[in-house]
Amino acid sequence: MFKKIHHIAIISSDYQASKDFYVNKLGFNVVNEVYREKRDSYKLDLAISETYQIELFSFPSPPKRVSQPEAAGLRHLAFEVDHIHETVSKLSDKGIECEPIRIDEETGKKFTFFQDPDGLPLEIYEN
C-alpha cells in the first residue's frame, strides 16, 4: 500500500535558529522556502538525499514538545551514516554535542543521539 516515507514535518519555535541548524550545521539542501503571511508561518523544504525530505515549519508560539524518549508519539528521527565517529566529530566541530556512542544490542551497530534547537531527539545510526 505505501511506497516510502514522503517527508517528515518539524515545527520550530525559532525558525532562523532551526534553519541555520538543519542547513548550515547538518548540511541539508534547501529545495523551497515560502512565507505564508496568513499563517505568519515559514515552510522550508529540505533535501536529505535523493529519497527523503524534511518540511521545517514555524508558527507563532507553538506549544513545547514532550521530549523524553519514552513519551507517547513520535520518539525521534534517525539518520543513517557510514562512519559514526567521523559524523560525531563533524557535529562536534559545529558545536553540536552528541551522547556517548552506544551499540544496538540487536544489530551490533553503533548509534548515538543529539538534539535540534528545540530539543527534538535526532539519532545517527551507522550502517
UniProtKB/TrEMBL annotation:
Sorted alphabetically, which InterPro entries does this protein's record hold? Fosfomycin_Res_Enzymes, Glyas_Bleomycin-R_OHBP_Dase, Glyas_Fos-R_dOase_dom, VOC_core, YwkD-like_dom
Query: Boundaries of each VOC domain copy?
Result: 4-127
Q: Name one Pfam family in it.
A: Glyoxalase
Provide this UniProt record's keywords sorted from A to Z: Metal-binding
Q: Name one GO molecular function term.
A: metal ion binding
Keyword DNA damage among record annotations: no
Q: What is this protein called?
A: VOC family protein
